Amino acid sequence: MPKRRGGAATGASAEDGSAASSGKAPRTDRGRRTLRAILDAAAIEFGEKGFHEGSISGITRRAGVALGSFYTYFDSKDAVFRALVRDMSGQVRDHVAPALRAADHQIAAERAGLEQFIAFVRQHKEIYRIIDEAEFVDPESFRQHYATTAERIRTRLAAASQRGELREGLSEVHAWAIMGMNVFLGLRYGVWQEDKTPEAIADTVAEMLKDGLARR
Amino acid sequence: MPKRRGGAATGASAEDGSAASSGKAPRTDRGRRTLRAILDAAAIEFGEKGFHEGSISGITRRAGVALGSFYTYFDSKDAVFRALVRDMSGQVRDHVAPALRAADHQIAAERAGLEQFIAFVRQHKEIYRIIDEAEFVDPESFRQHYATTAERIRTRLAAASQRGELREGLSEVHAWAIMGMNVFLGLRYGVWQEDKTPEAIADTVAEMLKDGLARR
Fold it and tell me: Which segments show compositional bias classed as Low complexity (chains A, B) (predicted)?
């Protein structure tokens, strides 16, 4: 049965091992666990030190793997950074997807997606520094992250229009607007200061998305 | 007479010369023109090369001023970068303010502000690279730029609620949501690709801000 909402798989899962450099995908569960450990360690290394100060040896030390294991899966520091951006993009998508699917109306879905996103950011504050640094270190990854995220939002808005939950004529502009809102709310209330609950923020935004801001 | 909408001056104007390092503010019109030329040249230098590759000599060459003139106004490359972020923040504010003030309803004001912002970005695409790089080069400037922009939006939303144009209860969350929308729409349709007019984008967003997205 096709999933009703937000269920379209777009690109590789964060868990399928395709993050490795070309020809280096792990073939065993153990290999996939090692790859996962390297990516998680890379998130901490680059999140703390940034790309230029971060090092492969810092990553392998944090991951508790030998330097040779790193090169089993990745060609270079650039390659693991590129893989990390794609992996984090996938992790956000996978973390938010169940809440999007479970909602019974697209406004509720957007609400739940934002709530889950802010909660995720609080547990993974490094995601901002890493994706933002991609603009300079690997512009193509940066672009890819936002282009695919916006396209995913556009697709789910169009489907909700078709189901009659949202009005007609929703476009890429709406998708970019919603993505921008979510990214900045995640920065402010996820990374900078946790002075409001994700629930309260999501409620506020859902009300705005539902009825707008004009006085009635 | 107090201005009706969006007229609150917040911080220094982009044109008052206060961009110079402490104790180095120009005292003559000629000095202010030189300072302006240095800031404009710095925008091009850092916009093209980034902070690390950009140089003071590159800035003075582009500005057509002597190296000594640079040090008349700035202490260092860090100082001119910091001043540039603040100056660009002020330029955006000053460019958008007249459109905000001229509108006869806050939805129309937000619409006009976004239209002007996208048009401004198309003429100053380097603003994204510079402000985004500030996150790494000078985090305090980065934070300051978004915190003051959000506060300015929050203030104008609250005033519009009071005038009865927008509903009550608008908060910092709404301000960050609107700022995020605008920043990402500027990135997509100002920097990446100019495949929609600023007018059309602003119309779409104004409709969303006015009535929301739910089917009626």
Answer: 10-25
Distance (Å) from the alpha carbon of A84 to chain B's nearest alpha carbon: 19
Q: Which residues contact B33 (CB under 8 A, 6 or more apart)?
A: none
A208 to B174: CB separation less than 8 angstroms, yes or no: yes
For position B16, what pLDDT does the model report?
A: 52
Query: Superfamily assignment of B25-74 in CATH?
Result: Homeodomain-like (1.10.10.60)
pLDDT digits (tens, 9 = 90+) for B113-158: 999 999 999 999 999 999 999 999 999 999 999 999 999 999 999 9
Flag whether residue A159 sits within 8 Å of chain B, measured between CB atoms. no
Sorted by where each begins, the domain ranges of chain B are: 25-74, 77-211
- To the nearest whole angstrom, how far is the Cα of B96 from the nearest Cα of chain A? 19
Architecture of domain A24-75: Orthogonal Bundle (1.10)
ipTM comes to 0.92
Residue to substitute from A163, A181, A185, interface B, most B β-carbons within 10 A? A181
pLDDT tens figures, A29-87: 999 999 999 999 999 999 999 999 999 999 999 999 999 999 999 999 999 999 999 99
B149 interfacial to chain A (CB closer than 8 Å):
no
Radius of gyration for the alpha carbons in chain B, expressed in angstroms and rounded: 19
Interface check A204 vs B, CB under 8 A: yes
CA distance A118 to A201: 9
